[in-house]
Amino acid sequence: NAGVTQTPKFQVLKTGQSMTLQCAQDMNHNSMYWYRQDPGMGLRLIYYSASEGTTDKGEVPNGYNVSRLNKREFSLRLESAAPSQTSVYFCASSATRAQSLFGPGTRLLVL
Amino acid sequence: GENVEQHPSTLSVQEGDSAVIKCTYSDSASNYFPWYKQELGKRPQLIIDIRSNVGEKKDQRIAVTLNKTAKHFSLHITETQPEDSAVYFCAAASGGGADGLTFGKGTHLIIQP
Lengths: 111, 113
What we know:
Chain A has about 110 residues and is mainly β. Chain A is about 0% helix and about 50% strand. In chain A, a hairpin with a 6-residue loop joins β9 and β10.
């Protein structure tokens, strides 16, 4: 049981470049989430998927898109990266009305 | 939407003493309140959670209390140990958390030897 996995672990982008962050879980969880963590700001919800086939905006969705590819996988895409998107990105998953478990994170630096 | 305030931002206690971290929330519909511990460079890990149908929950040296009327909840750590040093985050959610969590900004707990 790998739990929640994320790739890549670390990425450097130039302003305007695009990339996709990948997340997968093997716990058969219905819900998946993307958060970003910035110093002194806690974690903020970007997008979530309460079940396969649905996605919804969180607190800070601007500049991002998501895809719930299947029950296991939930990807986050930056179409045109900006320095303000430099952050640590965490994916999480949960069974219905249960505890959220986090992945190891992706550190993104946008120059 | 929900807003979660967390205090203090930094807390330094002597090893063996107790530590208390407090959070307030704004949305009366919130009914799920987890606490996460995050060590430097690691992922947040759930340490305890409470739902709105109970006022207190305990797990060994850790306890959480909830006051729905006042919209605040607290984390209590007794007999602190060096390995308790970390950043602690409170969070709140409605619907049991299925639509995601709203986090406080974190408390850096330092255990002094």
